[in-house]
Design brief:
By secondary structure, the protein is an alpha/beta fold. It is built from 21 helices and 14 strands. 45% of the residues lie in helices and 14% in strands. The radius of gyration is 34 Å and the shape is flat.
């Protein structure tokens, strides 16, 4: 880094007193220099900025300082290009401020270890990101940043990102659940992030002295449940905290454990708030006798519904981008996004485990990626095969009108019986297991006498019956 250090003083002399934001980074996005305007904008002293590494992520990070400067990170595509226009951001008093910035690589003829990135941003904030930056609303990264501000949560809600009606509904429900202290049931298909969402809601609701007790419904029997809750009651004597019980997959709780849990909820001093997750509707299970009705009604005071990925497939690009940036925050390598071809492949797949399965696939692709954008070949082979296979699936549902279908079969049977009885209606009725009067009513209903040339008990033209028999033999 000798070369970059030798340039720093000259850069500092030029931009130190400027109102424009200016900073230098290496190719690992570590800050080498920042002028006073940059330090004031992000609210971190200049000396503390030096050495901090930016992460290309639009969601909250655990490290306070890294979280303050994540908006300074250039797009990872700059690592394979020479320059780029982008938007930088910073969080201030629960509001996000944006500035237009220009990034360029210096000393591009030198080894990568000696190259630096120069960033220069406008001296004034953008008043309206969409109108000032035209393309910003189309950029997934900026959209995620806006959604992160909307959620206003200290913990990532990647499973809730999206602009579909289903995603908007889930976010609204989550915000209401966070603001309310009532018991909560989260229902939805497997893999839609119910446990993750329950943890987030608790973290947003909790006070400093609150605790969370987590149990897995499929593994808890009556004795374990009783012991856990009794221990909690003993520990909470005289405590000012309000603890929460998280029961995952409560629809798999044994009948005896259900009775035990409901019994505890009826105690006058029971202060344990319950958050539960279920893959099935508890009220529907109770109606069919597969869940304790009293407990089902107790737990469904507030119900939050998660949605299968197939019902919000339009959110897939944003979900993929969110998972990429979540992985960016955990490692040094930075990925900017996912190629159009890869997104089209992912949209063709059938995600049986929903968003959890998609997240696993994106993380594996991130690990395999050698470029700054995820490509189709970065994803696991099974995902690539699923994407190819579903391209050849028939998407047209065959509509069957049951009544007309059954009538057509009945007409064929009557025609065959009449043919074999040589037009004798009495014999045909006997072959069909009907009386003669009922056969005559069906003949009249289907207008078969005129269509087949029946006169009295004999057939004038039996070609229609012969065709029916041939058709039946061909189908069989």
């Amino acid at each position: 880094m000798a070369q970059s250090r030798s340039r720093t003083p000259s850069v500092a002399k030029l931009v130190e007193g400027s109102s424009a934001i200016c900073y230098l980074m290496n190719l690992n996005f570590e800050i080498l220099y920042a002028n006073q305007s940059c330090a004031e904008w992000v609210g971190i002293p200049q000396e503390k900025l030096i050495g901090l590494r930016c992460v290309y992520s639009s969601t909250e990070l655990n490290n306070h300082l890294k979280n303050r400067i994540r908006g300074l990170c250039p797009p990872p595509s700059l690592l394979t290009g020479q320059s780029a226009n982008a938007t930088i951001s910073r969080q201030h008093e629960k509001e996000t401020h944006y500035r237009s910035a220009f990034f360029t690589r210096l000393d591009d003829r030198l080894p990568e270890s000696k190259q630096v990135i120069l960033a220069i941003a406008d001296s004034s904030n953008l008043l309206d990101l969409d109108s000032q930056n035209g393309l910003a609303s189309k950029k997934l990264h900026d959209t995620l940043a806006a959604l992160s501000d909307e959620l206003n949560a200290a913990h990532t809600m990647t499973h809730l990102v999206g602009q579909s009606s289903a995603a908007i509904r889930m976010r609204r429900q989550a915000q209401i659940a966070i603001e309310c202290q009532a018991d909560l049931l989260i229902e939805g298909p497997t893999g839609t992030g119910k446990a993750h969402l329950a943890q987030i809601i608790f973290n947003e609701r909790r006070k400093s002295e609150d605790q969370l007790v987590t149990l897995e419904g499929a593994l808890v029997d009556r004795a374990i449940l009783q012991k856990k809750i009794k221990n909690w009651v003993y520990d909470q004597q005289g405590s000012a905290g309000r603890d929460w019980l998280l029961i995952l997959n409560i629809d798999q709780l044994s009948p005896a454990a259900q009775e035990e849990l409901y019994g505890f909820t009826q105690l006058p001093n029971f202060r344990l708030r319950i958050i539960a997750t279920s893959s099935h509707s508890l009220l529907e299970l109770a109606a069919s006798g597969r869940f304790l009705s009293k407990l089902a009604f107790y737990l469904t005071t507030m119900v939050l519904q998660t949605t299968a990925l197939s019902e919000r497939i339009a959110d897939l690009p944003l979900l993929v981008q969110a998972f990429i940036e979540e992985r960016n925050a955990q490692a040094t390598k930075q990925i900017g996004g996912c190629s159009k071809e890869a997104l089209e492949m992912l949209a063709q797949c059938r995600w049986h485990r929903n968003i959890d399965q998609l997240k696993e696939a994106v993380f594996l692709a991130w690990d395999n990626a050698t470029a700054t954008t995820l490509q189709s070949h970065d994803f696991p082979e099974e995902v690539q095969q699923l994407g190819r296979a579903t391209q050849f699936e028939s998407r047209t549902d065959v509509q069957i009108e049951l009544e007309s279908y059954l009538e057509s079969i009945e007409q064929r049977l009557i025609a065959r019986a009449l043919h074999r009885a040589k037009g004798n209606k009495s014999k045909a009725a006997k072959l069909l297991g009907l009386n003669r009067a009922k056969l005559l009513r069906r003949l009249n209903h289907f207008n078969l006498e005129e269509r087949t040339g029946l006169k009295g008990d004999h057939v004038v033209d039996s070609s229609a019956f012969l065709e029916s028999d041939k058709d039946d033999e061909a189908q069989s």
